[in-house]
Amino acid sequence: GIQPKRTITDEDTPWFPWPDRETCVLDILRHVPRCAFSDRQNAVIHWALSALGVKDIPSEYTMQHISKTLQSLCGVSSIRYKGVMGHIYYVNDFAAIIAQEMANPRVRPRLRFLPEDAGKKLSEAWQGARWRDELDPNLAGPMVRVHGVDYYVYEPAMLRDGSLCMPYRWFTRGPRTLAKAWGLSMTSDRSGWVVCKHVEFEVDCSDLLSSTPTLLHTAQYYNIPSPSKIIGMSPSPSLRRCRPILLMASAGVQERPSGGIHPWTLTDPREGNRWRKIAQGRKVVPFPVWLYCDDTSGNLSKKWNKHNSFLFTAAGLPRRFVHREYNIHFLTTSNIAPPLEMLDGIVEQLRDCQKSGIWAWDCEERDMVLVIPSVLAMLGDNPMQSEIACHVGLAGKLFCRVCNVSKGAPLPTEEMHADEPPDIGDDVQSIQSGSEAESEAADKSSDPRETMAEMVDRIRRFMSIASLRTRTNTLQELRSQFTTAQSIGGQANVKRARTRTGIRDAYQSFFIDRLFSLTTKRNRSRQERLADVADYIRTVPWLDESATSPVWRIHDFDPHTDTPVEILHVVLLGFIKYFWRDTISRLKEPAKATLIARLSSFDVAGLGIAPLLGATLVNYAKSLVGRDFRAIAQAAPFVLHNLDGIPDELHRVWVALGYLVPLIWQPEIDDLPIHTKRLEDAINHFLNSTCNLTPRWFNKPKFHIILHLPEHIRRFGPPMLFATEGFESFNAVIRSHSIHSNHRAPSRDIALGMAHQNRIRHLLSHGSFYMPRVVDGKNDEILVEPPAGTHTPRSPWLRRAAQLKPERTVWRCIGPNVAALFREELDNRFTKDVLHLLRLDMGADLDRPSSERIGLHVLPGIHAGIRSRCRIATHILLHEDGWYKADDQPWVTYRKPVTTTGTHQPTAPSLGRLREVIQLVGSKSEELGRADLLVLQKCQHLSVHPHYGMPHIRLQDEFVLIPMEAFICVANVQHNCYDRACGLANTRIVRQEHEDTAERIAEVYHGEAPRDYILNTAQMRNSALIVPFYPPVPLAVDREDLILRAALREFSLRPRQRRLRAAQSTNAAPQDRSQHEAGTATAQNTAGPSAIQVPALATMRPSSPALHTPSSGVYGAGHPSPLHQAPFPSWSPYPSNSAMPLDRVAMLASLRP
């Protein structure tokens, strides 16, 4: 073919690796993230350049040739796979992406490779128990280098005191690096060593003296056995009397009464840790990742075009960087292949990487290193995580992927008998809500309604954690299902097993369904069907593993425990969405208008969000997104009071969410045990409040799944680490590549587009890359084929890196002219825009110390104060919240130092209102454009407000002058509108097209008591800094009593519900329908637990405040246990002056545990 006049060369040129400026700029322009162009748009760009007089513009063919060549030389490859289900998909080279991260100077300095013991603090993934204590030591950190000597896990090491130990895990504590080690004991005849696993201790790496290779040559001089002679491993505790480190010959194996020594299988003692041989004297570092899977649409229109995608990000990055778009990497997508089929290709690459390691250039160490990747956790929404965990899903009777909680009636063993028929109808009905579910259940005469005993038991189960699922038990069940499916008549037994256990492998089901079609084929004898099954079984892949999902082939990964609770879908798109839709559905138009005015008047200072659009949040309650629900969670407790149709119980649920949400969105945890206990109390308080409202919500699995969050925090870190907002945002990049393709090969085209984008990102980040020899614009590198019969990795990078000579390999960077494109005219806004589009401005502002970022830069507009000694600022930058006007007087928290015996000791944080910002003339702060002092108005902290459940504060006529360094953060404070009965006034100016109009709308008018305020402890921004102001979580109630009351109240409403359904079905309304509607609240809402008309709880309670007395718990002084009273509680559907029916008393007594 015709060769283009521009070709790639391996010579150092100003525009290396591009031939010239034109190809460089156009190649960058074509692969800017979120700005993908189609071929027609590229043609328009070429025309525009020609019209502007740009000479020698490369043709479309030349640009495609340059991009393709550069991608093959220094980019990431897209590998073709044909899945076991017959679908073709493409996966980007996992090893090459990780190698680029190690050679990227914007990423490598921030990567963490060893877990940390931070005590009670928890803020990063490497501080969680999963990486620190549970992950396979060969994946968590196989070696450390001390004074130029490499020490590996599972290799004997000598300490400075002459004793030997067996390090099995490395970690850090502050600036020190330590090892967890087992003791070593010599046999009585001094012929070898026994590893004493029961003797565990810590070793400071500075105390390490000799590694295993050294001991192999020096053991005879110390008169000790060779470290290669490890006899076995002893679990016996008989050696506990010995000192933890000095375990010498005095503790012989013959003294152990337990008998027997387990064989040592963790390494080959003669060779040591296998990574030592592979690394050849170079460093070995771990690289855990957060692996994410979700579906998104490939269309801009509302027509759904489902694409399942896998993404990942490095778990070793700090929390503030880990979910930035710059650090999220694409692996694969497909609109036809299911997730588990694509996971097969990813796991194959992962296993190859874990077998040989990934050779990469470490731009920090300036040397080659060996990288070992692993999967720390798999993220996604609940249906996706259930599919990953081989779970039946949220519609199953055993609906939780983590534990064996069940919706059905339990047996003592928490399981149904294998021969019990599956109850699929109940599973489907349990997650339905609305009139459709009610009518469907009513029409099925064979499906009896839930009894009260069953309802009480179901609520108990939803509010507690059952026995946990395990990897071993699930694999055993999947093997059993696969074996059963091969027998004639096995189809029914497999379905029963899936219902009984809640286990269903979507990957395995592809083969099981084929087996079902063979075993149930008509006009075939039994022997012929069995022969067909035997023939098909021979074609099934991974037959020795019963054709189970590839997730079980991920080393040291348990999909039940390593799929943490995803707070975006469980909390924001779960509880808050449910209750907000339920709240709006209860309101009539006048109440909606009031709520709109309150939301629009809500003060958002310190929340880091834009002013609320009340009309949007109310009128489009069914079309909101995550950021809307984030704002609603922080505002709802302040805007729902005294609205017709909103019962007090519902408001208490919103207050309970105000306790829970900020605890979940804690970026840093200072005291993990205290935080975990508080979080568990807040979850239980929320569930109790929900149950007190109505137990119908306990058909939604998310109300149970949240119970597993505290344990996941302990193992993985703060929930913000495994949140998925960043990944969800990245779906827009995938959609952009889908839109600008011809849709003929979506998996290939999107993978190639993302690979090109990854190459541009790496090159413009000044990342190092290996450039092979190029002749005539083509790769002249010759790779030696591996011997026949050996496994060849699919990854081109693994094949290439295996044949590299590290001492002869030259790593290159982009030419000086390319780098100058983004260094010149840094004040040029176009350059800044391009840097932002390329995400090359990632974290530049966060690299500075926090003391230089916290509210310091004073904007122009400063006027001189008295005698020109000071200046008063009009604006100030407070922390990361943005600019604030001093005239707006934001609320701030501060810590005033107290001088004691000549030293400054910090006190507990206080709250005040900013009045003035002062800069001293001639001070050092003036040179830096920073403030010196803040004038704050003090406030008085009252008790916790009984309605809001938050601190009640009142401004005082006292002021305090504090240095800028004492400032902590901006707090959100709201006026106490509940006690002050603040009304509405038509005083808000309506703006249209950026212009003020004469139209006025309603806004909240705070009256004559502006000093009465409530500290909004539901705020999510700076939640970690507001912790000292958090009120205590309300005391636990008698949950059993609460459940019984809620179930009885719900059960007693069913006759009324049946009458309403009958009336609606016959179109004959009752004669007193108008009177009935006056005392009911409309609960028709598809997101709520029911869509029928039920009496509002507020109308069933007297106005007596007895229910709110603290001494009476959640029920009030007039509401003792239903088992110890004759009159029924005042909020009961029974008249207050009537006695409880005796059958109800007997039934409740039988339900008590």
Outline the structure in words.
The protein is built from 38 helices and 36 strands. By secondary structure, it is of the alpha+beta class. The strands form eleven sheets. Strands 20, 21, 24, 27, 28, 29, 30, 31 and 34 form a nine-stranded antiparallel sheet that branches.
Amino- and carboxy-terminal Cα gap: 84 Å
Residue fraction in strands: 15-25%
- What is the 3D form? globular
Q: Count the E strands.
A: 36
From the alpha carbons, calculate the radius of gyration and give it in angstroms.
34 Å
Helical region count?
38
Main sheet? Answer: 9 strands, antiparallel
- Summarize model confidence as the mean pLDDT: 82
Which stretches are low in confidence, meaning pLDDT under 50 for 5 or more residues running?
238-259, 410-448, 843-867, 1068-1153
Overall SS class: alpha+beta
Helix content: 25-40%
Helix and strand topology:
Elements: H1 21-30, H2 39-51, H3 60-74, E1 78-82, E2 88-92, H4 94-102, H5 129-134, H6 137-140, E3 143-146, E4 149-152, E5 157-159, E6 164-173, E7 176-186, E8 193-204, E9 208-210, H7 212-222, E10 230-234, H8 274-279, E11 284-297, E12 306-314, H9 319-322, E13 329-334, H10 339-356, E14 358-362, E15 367-379, H11 382-388, H12 424-431, H13 435-443, H14 452-462, H15 471-485, H16 490-501, H17 506-519, H18 526-537, H19 567-585, H20 589-601, H21 614-619, H22 626-639, H23 648-664, H24 672-693, H25 702-705, H26 709-716, H27 725-739, H28 746-764, E16 769-770, E17 774-775, E18 778-779, H29 796-801, E19 811-812, H30 816-820, H31 829-837, E20 863-864, E21 870-872, E22 875-877, E23 883-885, E24 891-894, E25 898-900, E26 903-905, E27 910-920, H32 924-928, E28 933-944, E29 951-963, E30 967-971, E31 973-975, H33 977-980, E32 983-992, E33 995-1005, E34 1012-1015, H34 1023-1026, H35 1039-1052, H36 1054-1065, H37 1073-1078, E35 1080-1081, E36 1094-1095, H38 1142-1151
Parallel strand pairs: 8-10, 11-15
Antiparallel strand pairs: 1-2, 3-4, 5-6, 5-9, 6-7, 7-8, 11-12, 12-13, 14-15, 16-19, 17-18, 20-21, 21-27, 22-23, 24-27, 24-30, 25-26, 27-28, 28-29, 29-34, 31-34, 32-33, 35-36
